[in-house]
Amino acid sequence: MARPKSGDRRSAILSAAIRIIASEGLGAPTALIAKEAGVSNGSLFTYFETKADLLNRLYIEVKAEAAIAAMDGLPLKAGIRKRALHMWSNSLDWATACPEKRRVLAHLAVSGDITPASRRAGHQAMAGVASLIEQSRENGPMRKAPLEFVVAILNALTDATIDFMIRDKANAEKHRTAGFEALWRMIG
Amino acid sequence: MARPKSGDRRSAILSAAIRIIASEGLGAPTALIAKEAGVSNGSLFTYFETKADLLNRLYIEVKAEAAIAAMDGLPLKAGIRKRALHMWSNSLDWATACPEKRRVLAHLAVSGDITPASRRAGHQAMAGVASLIEQSRENGPMRKAPLEFVVAILNALTDATIDFMIRDKANAEKHRTAGFEALWRMIG
Amino acid sequence: MARPKSGDRRSAILSAAIRIIASEGLGAPTALIAKEAGVSNGSLFTYFETKADLLNRLYIEVKAEAAIAAMDGLPLKAGIRKRALHMWSNSLDWATACPEKRRVLAHLAVSGDITPASRRAGHQAMAGVASLIEQSRENGPMRKAPLEFVVAILNALTDATIDFMIRDKANAEKHRTAGFEALWRMIG
Amino acid sequence: MARPKSGDRRSAILSAAIRIIASEGLGAPTALIAKEAGVSNGSLFTYFETKADLLNRLYIEVKAEAAIAAMDGLPLKAGIRKRALHMWSNSLDWATACPEKRRVLAHLAVSGDITPASRRAGHQAMAGVASLIEQSRENGPMRKAPLEFVVAILNALTDATIDFMIRDKANAEKHRTAGFEALWRMIG
DNA sequence: GATGAATGAGTATTCATTCAT
DNA sequence: AATGAATGAATACTCATTCAT
After folding, report:
1. Is A25 left (phi over 0), alpha (psi -120 to 50) or beta?
2. What tens digit of pLDDT does each residue of A125-138 get?
3. pLDDT tens digit string along D46-95?
4. CA 20 to 30 Å from A23, out of A88, A143, B188, D173?
């Protein structure tokens, strides 16, 4: 038979982990994740050495996905404000579309199980985003602040905006715009 | 009467919990906390019904302490920008002085063990802060945004700034100022 | 002040133990018994060395009470069958009137905490009853069986009858009579 | 398939439970039972959900075994007295041969952990015995008493007889016979 | 590889008993 | 003596990880 669909199993586990961790938190038993993935609990450990390993992979993959989503369809020729707005919208769209992934990322971000290496990998995945921010602030009031500081603020602002969009869906559009305007006032 | 319940013991446990949870996370064994507090593991449960109870009290007390610190010595007669800056500085000073408390608060904030009631208590403690923000944005670009949204952004911005001050202590002062300027650009 | 009313406290504890153990079983915490007795948990241990001690005293006292109840108002001049019936009725009346004491006795009888010495004390308290049985079987078919065997059967039969009287109160009288007739057929 | 759940392990646990509970009572730690069964403490819980579950299964299985033993080799064509005597002897033989099981059953019978469902299952297992009793008393003095009452008395009488046989082994045979005669006088 | 049973370290909580007040 | 806080041993149950099949 052709190659065993190990890739399938691996991603089945990963996406089961998202669903389970989103609802149960990081304390969720690996056995539950395996079950949700339709896989035996033993199998989980042939794809991931330890639970911590699974968590780290999850962190990296979801982070990467978020980064890709953020840059999707970026109008390369457009002005910087336009491109920034595009990315901002993309990020919020993604977060709204995959609330579970966002929850999981929030859990993982504060987990002691995520290694510095994984965090670095996460940052690298966000390189495109970082560069866009770099350009955005180039002529603004934060032009001298360390890039990381600006990134941190952006992340925080994004989180706050998303939280609010989810909490008050009726006015989601307004919040999205208000968030961007606030951002631009800060760095643009 | 027998040996009366001792406030000292209670706070010994609470502050041991801060130290232990800051370094071990919320999964830290109650026995370890008790030991750090110089108290028997059974005693912990005469002061707190359950571990979750301990966590909730911790959340409320530390949150209240942060609120008090934020408002300490507020120059009531000063203009709004000055007062906002004072609060901003206070918050960052406190967070810098008690990094463990901040870490613990960060852990607790995302914990499923903190009850809605405790969260409400936390918000109430922050009432003074909220009112100051309310005034700050009164004539600014975010005057129409929901207060909660502004609060969320402030929190996020504070966190980002603190993170950065801690990470790059040499330029802590600059980051503190830059953070406030960013804030004021957004809401002032 | 006159003598401290220690006797009161002691019996308060004992009767609280009956109520609590009847409803919670032998696993009931001593603290609960103390509370029900209106006494501090520490005090319980000035009246009874250990929980096992409390249980043993309880066993002996309740057993003695049952024995006394059984012999109460015994018509000394009457014939043996009449006296036996009187005792039989007394026992069932007592058990019906104090179901909690009976429950407690049932629990204690199978407990590993009751010492042989206590069991002997219990038997001694039942001496009057034993003697009556002795006479009852004197000319009957079990005249050669060991007394203890007959006693055991009587106890068992009593228990069964009481259980049934309690379970089917409407026909309690019938069961009481049927039980005695069965007894008499066996030994009389 | 992985290593299949093993009936051997299950019964090893069950019979270890009998030995341990017989000597230590129902308070015996599950870890001790597991150890006696030559199994890890965790394994006990793959065969029985909770300790209470283990206790209930034990109750049902031992009760069933007692019932089967009681009816073993029953001479179906014989007269009722003969059949009753056969059952009586069987029961006593079994109880004498497995004193631990009897002890355990005695403990379990009064335990609050045994569910009504388990008690019902126990009664059903005893259906054959019940029917034999029904026939036995059919023409006797207790023909009008509720069957359950007669069963209770039989149980009690059996218990008393066994206790005595065990206590006074030298005359076990005599007690066995005396017990049956007493029974037959009551109901036959 | 896949399975799921086996393992055993780890943990919150209880409770008899002691002891400071 | 009375109180009730302090103690710490004890215990059911969980779960990441291993391993027999």
Report:
1. left
2. 999 999 999 999 99
3. 999 999 999 999 999 999 999 999 999 999 999 999 999 999 999 999 99
4. A88
Kindly calculate the radius of gyration of chain C based on its CA atoms and give it in whole angstroms. Answer: 18
What Å value separates CA D111 and C1' E14? 20
Candidates B71, B70, B92, B74; CA nearest to B82 is B74
Alpha-carbon distance of C181 to C175, in angstroms, equals 10
Mean pLDDT of chain B: 93
Closest alpha carbon to D165 in C158, C152, C185: C152
Per-residue pLDDT at D59: 98
As given in the structure block, the two tokens for residue A10 are 């691996």
- A161 CB neighbours in chain B (<8 A) are 149, 153
Record: contact D178-C142, CB cut-off 8 A:
yes
Touching chains D and B? (3+ Cβ pairs < 8 A):
no
Helix A127-137 to helix A147-167 angle (10° resolution) is 100
Tell me, letter by letter, the H, E, C secondary structure of A92-137.
HHHHHHCHHHHHHHHHHHCCCCCCHHHHHHHHHHCHHHHHHHHHHH
Give the C-side interface with D, CB within 8 Å: 25, 27, 106-107, 110-112, 141-142, 145-146, 148-149, 152-153, 155-157, 159-161, 163-164, 168, 175, 178-179, 181-182, 185-187
d(Cα A118, Cα A108) in Å, to the nearest integer?
11
Query: What single DSSP character describes residue A170?
Result: G
Q: What is the CA radius of gyration of chain B?
A: 18
- Asked if residues A126 and A150 have their Cβ atoms less than 8 Å apart, the reply is no
The band of C159, judged by pLDDT with boundaries at 50, 70 and 90, is: confident
Triad D164, D165, D166: Cα angle to 5°: 90
pLDDT at residue number A4:
46
Segment B74-93, tens digit of pLDDT: 999 999 999 999 999 999 99
Query: Which pTM does this prediction carry?
Result: 0.91
Q: Which residues of D touch C (CB under 8 A)?
A: 24-25, 27, 106-107, 110, 112, 141-142, 145-146, 148-149, 152-153, 155-157, 159-161, 163-164, 167-168, 175, 178-179, 181-182, 185-187
